[in-house]
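Dear support,

I submitted the protein below through the web form. The confirmation email said the job was done, but the results page showed an empty box. After a refresh the structure appeared. I'm attaching both so you can tell me whether what I see now is the final result or a partial one.
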Amino acid sequence: MIKLKILLNKLTPGDTLTFFATREQVDNTCAPFSSNGYQVAWDQEAENRYLVRIGK
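What the results page shows now:
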């Protein structure tokens, strides 16, 4: 989570960070960041694999 926060702080407006995550990781990361002004989206790629995009 700390590495994710560091990477998001380095993003310039309009940039997006993309990564794969499990369902548990999606639940733990997407809700907090979506309430902090980030644009958060995810798509299910496999049974327990999601493509997550977080942008400024």
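Response: this is the final, complete result; the empty box was a page-load delay. The longest strand covers residues 39-46.
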